[in-house]
Amino acid sequence: MTDLYAVVGNPVAHSRSPAIHAEFARATGQDLRYEALLAPFDGLARTLADFRGRGGKGCNVTVPFKLEAFRLAAQLSARAQVAEAVNTLKFDGDAVFGDNTDGVGLIRDIRQNLGWPIEGKRVLLMGAGGAAQGVLAPLLDEHPATLVIANRTPRKAEELAGHMRRIERFRSRLINAGPYPELKGKQFDIVINATSGSLSGELPPLPRGVFAAESLAYDMMYGQALTPFLGFAQAEGAGRLADGIGMLVEQAAESFFLWRGVRPDTAPVITLLKMQQETVNHKQ
Ligand code: ATR
Q1: CA 51 to CA 100: how far, in whole Å?
Q2: Does the CB atom of residue 153 touch ligand 1 within 6 A?
Q3: How far, in Å, are 114, 218, 226, 229, 278 from residue 234 at the CA level?
Q4: Could you tell me which residues are beta bridge partners of residue 91?
Q5: Alpha-carbon distance 87 to 66, whole Å?
Q6: Are domains 3-100+246-283 and 103-243 of this chain identical in fold?
Q7: Which of 26, 165, 228, 257 is least enclosed by beta carbons within 10 angstroms?
Q8: Span 237-243, mean pLDDT?
Protein backbone atom coordinates (compact mmCIF):
# COMPACT_ATOMS: atom_id res chain seq x y z
CA MET A 1 0.00 0.00 0.00
CA THR A 2 1.25 3.51 -0.82
CA ASP A 3 2.49 5.34 2.31
CA LEU A 4 0.78 8.63 3.12
CA TYR A 5 2.47 11.89 4.21
CA ALA A 6 1.31 15.53 4.39
CA VAL A 7 2.13 19.11 5.25
CA VAL A 8 -0.26 20.58 7.83
CA GLY A 9 -0.70 24.32 8.28
CA ASN A 10 -3.03 27.30 8.06
CA PRO A 11 -2.76 28.64 5.41
CA VAL A 12 -1.33 25.73 3.46
CA ALA A 13 -2.55 26.10 -0.12
CA HIS A 14 0.63 28.05 -1.07
CA SER A 15 2.91 25.23 0.12
CA ARG A 16 5.37 23.73 -2.38
CA SER A 17 6.05 20.76 -0.07
CA PRO A 18 3.71 18.36 -1.96
CA ALA A 19 5.54 19.11 -5.24
CA ILE A 20 8.95 18.71 -3.58
CA HIS A 21 8.16 15.37 -1.94
CA ALA A 22 6.54 14.05 -5.12
CA GLU A 23 9.78 14.88 -6.93
CA PHE A 24 11.91 13.26 -4.20
CA ALA A 25 9.73 10.13 -4.33
CA ARG A 26 10.03 9.96 -8.12
CA ALA A 27 13.80 10.46 -8.07
CA THR A 28 14.44 7.86 -5.34
CA GLY A 29 11.80 5.36 -6.47
CA GLN A 30 9.87 5.54 -3.17
CA ASP A 31 6.18 4.64 -3.19
CA LEU A 32 4.44 7.45 -1.28
CA ARG A 33 1.71 10.06 -1.53
CA TYR A 34 2.07 13.54 0.01
CA GLU A 35 -0.85 15.95 0.46
CA ALA A 36 -1.59 19.42 1.89
CA LEU A 37 -3.81 19.46 5.01
CA LEU A 38 -5.52 22.64 6.16
CA ALA A 39 -6.06 22.47 9.95
CA PRO A 40 -8.40 24.87 11.78
CA PHE A 41 -6.42 27.17 14.13
CA ASP A 42 -7.80 25.28 17.14
CA GLY A 43 -7.79 21.86 15.46
CA LEU A 44 -4.24 20.57 14.95
CA ALA A 45 -4.62 17.52 17.22
CA ARG A 46 -7.93 16.57 15.61
CA THR A 47 -6.59 17.00 12.08
CA LEU A 48 -3.55 14.83 12.89
CA ALA A 49 -5.72 12.14 14.51
CA ASP A 50 -7.90 11.98 11.36
CA PHE A 51 -4.80 11.80 9.20
CA ARG A 52 -3.32 8.96 11.23
CA GLY A 53 -6.69 7.20 11.05
CA ARG A 54 -6.35 7.32 7.24
CA GLY A 55 -2.92 5.67 7.49
CA GLY A 56 -0.72 8.81 7.68
CA LYS A 57 2.90 7.88 8.40
CA GLY A 58 4.32 11.36 8.96
CA CYS A 59 3.89 15.04 8.29
CA ASN A 60 5.58 18.38 8.01
CA VAL A 61 4.19 21.11 10.23
CA THR A 62 4.11 24.73 9.13
CA VAL A 63 2.69 28.09 10.27
CA PRO A 64 1.30 28.47 12.91
CA PHE A 65 1.53 25.00 14.43
CA LYS A 66 5.25 24.34 15.07
CA LEU A 67 5.06 25.13 18.78
CA GLU A 68 1.89 23.09 19.28
CA ALA A 69 3.41 20.16 17.37
CA PHE A 70 6.30 20.25 19.85
CA ARG A 71 3.81 19.83 22.71
CA LEU A 72 1.97 17.01 20.90
CA ALA A 73 5.06 14.88 20.18
CA ALA A 74 5.71 12.26 22.86
CA GLN A 75 9.32 11.66 21.76
CA LEU A 76 11.65 14.37 20.48
CA SER A 77 14.98 14.59 18.68
CA ALA A 78 17.75 16.54 20.45
CA ARG A 79 17.42 19.42 17.98
CA ALA A 80 13.64 19.62 18.48
CA GLN A 81 14.19 19.70 22.26
CA VAL A 82 16.53 22.69 21.96
CA ALA A 83 14.25 24.46 19.47
CA GLU A 84 11.07 23.68 21.46
CA ALA A 85 9.46 23.63 18.01
CA VAL A 86 8.68 20.77 15.64
CA ASN A 87 8.38 20.84 11.84
CA THR A 88 8.45 17.08 11.23
CA LEU A 89 6.36 14.35 12.81
CA LYS A 90 6.78 10.62 12.32
CA PHE A 91 4.00 8.23 13.29
CA ASP A 92 4.87 4.67 14.19
CA GLY A 93 1.94 2.75 15.61
CA ASP A 94 0.88 4.81 18.64
CA ALA A 95 4.25 6.58 18.88
CA VAL A 96 4.59 10.22 17.77
CA PHE A 97 8.17 11.34 17.16
CA GLY A 98 8.93 15.06 16.66
CA ASP A 99 11.97 16.51 14.91
CA ASN A 100 13.04 19.89 13.59
CA THR A 101 14.77 19.99 10.22
CA ASP A 102 14.38 23.76 9.63
CA GLY A 103 17.77 24.65 11.10
CA VAL A 104 19.70 22.08 9.08
CA GLY A 105 17.80 23.25 5.99
CA LEU A 106 18.65 26.93 6.53
CA ILE A 107 22.32 26.29 7.27
CA ARG A 108 22.76 23.98 4.27
CA ASP A 109 21.14 26.54 2.00
CA ILE A 110 23.20 29.50 3.25
CA ARG A 111 26.53 27.68 3.49
CA GLN A 112 26.46 25.09 0.74
CA ASN A 113 23.97 26.37 -1.84
CA LEU A 114 24.67 30.11 -1.52
CA GLY A 115 28.32 29.62 -0.47
CA TRP A 116 27.90 32.26 2.26
CA PRO A 117 29.92 31.83 5.48
CA ILE A 118 28.19 32.46 8.85
CA GLU A 119 31.23 32.09 11.11
CA GLY A 120 32.44 35.46 12.42
CA LYS A 121 29.50 37.35 10.84
CA ARG A 122 26.99 39.73 12.44
CA VAL A 123 23.61 38.01 12.16
CA LEU A 124 20.17 39.54 12.65
CA LEU A 125 17.24 37.14 13.09
CA MET A 126 13.81 38.75 12.71
CA GLY A 127 10.94 37.00 14.50
CA ALA A 128 10.60 34.93 17.66
CA GLY A 129 7.94 32.38 16.73
CA GLY A 130 8.23 28.72 15.79
CA ALA A 131 10.23 29.40 12.63
CA ALA A 132 12.83 31.51 14.48
CA GLN A 133 13.06 29.01 17.34
CA GLY A 134 13.82 26.20 14.91
CA VAL A 135 16.86 27.88 13.36
CA LEU A 136 18.41 29.70 16.30
CA ALA A 137 20.59 26.93 17.79
CA PRO A 138 21.87 25.71 14.40
CA LEU A 139 22.76 29.35 13.57
CA LEU A 140 24.65 29.72 16.87
CA ASP A 141 26.44 26.44 16.19
CA GLU A 142 27.97 28.16 13.14
CA HIS A 143 29.76 30.64 15.49
CA PRO A 144 28.57 34.04 14.24
CA ALA A 145 30.36 37.03 15.84
CA THR A 146 27.02 38.31 17.20
CA LEU A 147 23.40 37.26 16.92
CA VAL A 148 20.56 39.73 17.49
CA ILE A 149 16.92 38.65 17.68
CA ALA A 150 14.41 41.39 16.82
CA ASN A 151 10.68 40.94 17.30
CA ARG A 152 7.53 43.05 17.12
CA THR A 153 6.69 41.78 20.60
CA PRO A 154 10.10 42.35 22.28
CA ARG A 155 9.32 40.17 25.31
CA LYS A 156 9.25 37.07 23.08
CA ALA A 157 12.67 37.93 21.61
CA GLU A 158 14.06 38.38 25.14
CA GLU A 159 12.63 35.04 26.22
CA LEU A 160 14.14 33.29 23.23
CA ALA A 161 17.56 34.87 23.81
CA GLY A 162 17.33 33.90 27.51
CA HIS A 163 16.47 30.31 26.57
CA MET A 164 19.58 30.13 24.35
CA ARG A 165 21.89 31.73 26.93
CA ARG A 166 20.89 29.02 29.41
CA ILE A 167 22.19 26.30 27.05
CA GLU A 168 25.71 25.40 28.15
CA ARG A 169 27.40 25.57 24.75
CA PHE A 170 25.99 29.05 24.01
CA ARG A 171 26.76 30.57 27.42
CA SER A 172 29.68 32.72 26.31
CA ARG A 173 28.05 33.92 23.07
CA LEU A 174 26.92 37.42 22.17
CA ILE A 175 23.15 36.98 21.92
CA ASN A 176 21.02 40.12 22.10
CA ALA A 177 17.31 40.76 21.72
CA GLY A 178 14.97 43.69 21.43
CA PRO A 179 12.44 45.69 19.42
CA TYR A 180 13.02 46.82 15.82
CA PRO A 181 13.66 50.53 16.55
CA GLU A 182 16.73 49.54 18.60
CA LEU A 183 18.39 48.30 15.39
CA LYS A 184 18.77 51.88 14.17
CA GLY A 185 22.43 52.66 13.47
CA LYS A 186 23.47 48.98 13.51
CA GLN A 187 24.62 46.96 10.48
CA PHE A 188 24.52 43.22 9.85
CA ASP A 189 26.22 40.84 7.42
CA ILE A 190 23.30 38.42 7.33
CA VAL A 191 19.67 39.43 7.96
CA ILE A 192 17.19 36.56 8.16
CA ASN A 193 13.44 37.10 8.08
CA ALA A 194 11.82 34.37 10.19
CA THR A 195 8.56 36.30 10.70
CA SER A 196 5.35 35.22 9.04
CA GLY A 197 4.92 38.80 7.71
CA SER A 198 5.69 37.85 4.11
CA LEU A 199 2.72 35.46 4.10
CA SER A 200 0.36 38.41 4.43
CA GLY A 201 2.50 40.79 2.36
CA GLU A 202 3.66 42.70 5.45
CA LEU A 203 7.10 44.14 6.08
CA PRO A 204 8.40 44.00 9.67
CA PRO A 205 9.35 47.52 10.86
CA LEU A 206 13.05 47.22 10.06
CA PRO A 207 14.84 50.59 10.23
CA ARG A 208 16.82 51.79 7.22
CA GLY A 209 20.58 51.24 7.13
CA VAL A 210 20.92 47.71 8.56
CA PHE A 211 22.23 46.27 5.27
CA ALA A 212 25.75 46.76 3.94
CA ALA A 213 26.66 46.31 0.27
CA GLU A 214 28.03 42.82 1.12
CA SER A 215 25.04 41.80 3.24
CA LEU A 216 22.89 38.75 2.60
CA ALA A 217 19.13 39.29 3.01
CA TYR A 218 17.45 35.92 3.51
CA ASP A 219 13.68 35.46 3.66
CA MET A 220 12.64 32.09 5.07
CA MET A 221 9.33 32.61 3.27
CA TYR A 222 8.97 32.38 -0.47
CA GLY A 223 6.50 33.57 -3.04
CA GLN A 224 6.08 34.14 -6.73
CA ALA A 225 7.52 37.64 -6.62
CA LEU A 226 10.09 39.28 -4.31
CA THR A 227 8.74 39.26 -0.76
CA PRO A 228 8.22 42.72 0.86
CA PHE A 229 11.32 42.07 2.99
CA LEU A 230 13.50 41.22 -0.02
CA GLY A 231 12.09 44.23 -1.91
CA PHE A 232 13.09 46.45 1.02
CA ALA A 233 16.55 44.84 1.22
CA GLN A 234 17.07 45.37 -2.50
CA ALA A 235 16.08 49.04 -2.23
CA GLU A 236 18.47 49.35 0.72
CA GLY A 237 21.37 48.02 -1.37
CA ALA A 238 21.84 44.54 0.16
CA GLY A 239 24.37 42.67 -1.99
CA ARG A 240 22.65 39.29 -2.09
CA LEU A 241 18.98 38.33 -1.85
CA ALA A 242 17.64 34.82 -1.22
CA ASP A 243 14.16 33.52 -0.58
CA GLY A 244 13.32 30.36 1.36
CA ILE A 245 13.04 27.97 -1.61
CA GLY A 246 16.48 26.45 -0.99
CA MET A 247 15.82 26.06 2.73
CA LEU A 248 12.42 24.54 2.01
CA VAL A 249 13.92 21.89 -0.24
CA GLU A 250 16.79 21.19 2.19
CA GLN A 251 14.51 20.80 5.24
CA ALA A 252 12.19 18.61 3.14
CA ALA A 253 15.13 16.37 2.19
CA GLU A 254 16.02 15.94 5.86
CA SER A 255 12.38 15.05 6.71
CA PHE A 256 12.28 12.62 3.78
CA PHE A 257 15.46 10.99 5.13
CA LEU A 258 13.90 10.65 8.59
CA TRP A 259 10.78 9.00 7.16
CA ARG A 260 12.28 6.87 4.39
CA GLY A 261 15.97 6.39 5.27
CA VAL A 262 16.93 7.68 1.81
CA ARG A 263 18.59 11.05 1.16
CA PRO A 264 17.31 12.70 -2.04
CA ASP A 265 19.45 14.99 -4.20
CA THR A 266 18.28 18.57 -3.55
CA ALA A 267 20.00 20.58 -6.32
CA PRO A 268 17.74 19.48 -9.23
CA VAL A 269 14.60 20.14 -7.16
CA ILE A 270 15.78 23.64 -6.17
CA THR A 271 16.49 24.38 -9.84
CA LEU A 272 13.07 23.05 -10.85
CA LEU A 273 11.23 25.16 -8.27
CA LYS A 274 13.16 28.31 -9.23
CA MET A 275 12.34 27.73 -12.90
CA GLN A 276 8.66 27.34 -12.05
CA GLN A 277 8.83 30.56 -9.99
CA GLU A 278 10.32 32.43 -12.97
CA THR A 279 7.71 31.05 -15.38
CA VAL A 280 4.93 32.31 -13.10
CA ASN A 281 6.67 35.71 -12.76
CA HIS A 282 6.88 36.07 -16.53
CA LYS A 283 3.21 35.26 -16.90
CA GLN A 284 2.20 37.94 -14.37
P1 ATR B 1 6.09 30.86 12.73
O2 ATR B 1 5.90 29.40 12.99
O3 ATR B 1 6.14 31.21 11.28
O4 ATR B 1 7.24 31.46 13.47
P5 ATR B 1 4.43 32.14 14.67
O6 ATR B 1 4.90 31.23 15.74
O7 ATR B 1 2.99 32.51 14.60
O8 ATR B 1 4.74 31.55 13.25
O9 ATR B 1 5.34 33.47 14.73
C10 ATR B 1 5.21 34.49 13.80
C11 ATR B 1 6.34 35.49 13.99
O12 ATR B 1 6.25 36.50 12.97
C13 ATR B 1 6.32 36.22 15.31
O14 ATR B 1 7.65 36.53 15.70
C15 ATR B 1 5.55 37.50 14.94
O16 ATR B 1 5.79 38.61 15.80
P17 ATR B 1 4.99 38.74 17.21
O18 ATR B 1 5.68 37.79 18.15
O19 ATR B 1 5.14 40.14 17.59
O20 ATR B 1 3.58 38.32 16.91
C21 ATR B 1 6.13 37.78 13.60
N22 ATR B 1 5.28 38.62 12.73
C23 ATR B 1 4.15 38.27 12.08
N24 ATR B 1 3.68 39.28 11.33
C25 ATR B 1 4.54 40.32 11.51
C26 ATR B 1 4.62 41.66 11.01
N27 ATR B 1 3.70 42.14 10.17
N28 ATR B 1 5.65 42.45 11.43
C29 ATR B 1 6.58 41.96 12.29
N30 ATR B 1 6.56 40.70 12.79
C31 ATR B 1 5.57 39.90 12.41
Answers
A1: 20
A2: yes
A3: 17, 11, 9, 9, 18
A4: 96
A5: 6
A6: yes
A7: 26
A8: 97
Tens digits of per-residue pLDDT, 129-154? 989 999 999 999 999 999 999 999 99
pTM of the prediction?
A: 0.94
Q: How many CB atoms lie within 10 A of CB 166?
A: 9
What does the domain layout of the chain look like in residue ranges?
A: 3-100+246-283, 103-243
CB of 156 shorter than 6 A to ligand 1: yes
According to CATH, what is the number of the domain 103-243? 3.40.50.720
Cα distance from N-terminal residue to C-terminal residue, the chain: 41
C-alpha–C-alpha distance, residues 69 and 61, integer Å: 7
Ligand 1 mean position, distance from CA 197 (Å): 6
What does the alpha-carbon distance between residue 202 and residue 205 come to, in Å, rounded to a whole number?
9
Q: How far apart are CA 19 and CA 212, in angstroms?
A: 35
Given the candidates 3.40.50.1970, 3.40.50.10860, 3.40.50.720, 1.10.443.10, the CATH classification of the domain at 3-100+246-283 is: 3.40.50.10860
- Compute the distance from residue 143 Cα to the ligand 1 centre, in Å: 25
